[in-house]
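DM from R.C. (forwarded with permission)

"hey, sorry to bug you on a friday — could you get me a structure for this? deadline for the figure draft is monday and I only need the backbone to look sensible"
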Amino acid sequence: MANPTLFVRERTDVERGSKQPRFAFIASVNTDLRVKAQYLRTKELEQIAQHIGGEVVYMKTDKHDDEREIEIAKE
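My reply, with the result:
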């Protein structure tokens, strides 16, 4: 069985340092995880991925393609 994967993307209406969760949960693969929150912080995503033995995939967004490159990171 493949590793669980969580797909998230950066929110377009929140700036860095605004003290609001920066990532929107999009989907999960190979897990029966149910997420009650629509938006999550990086630390929360990392903790969930570590607990289920999975990885987080940060999807690119159009807003930030010009400003900076968002890496696709695997935990």
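R.C.: lifesaver. The CA atoms of residues 15 and 22 lie 8 Å apart.
me: no worries. The chain has a mean pLDDT of 81.
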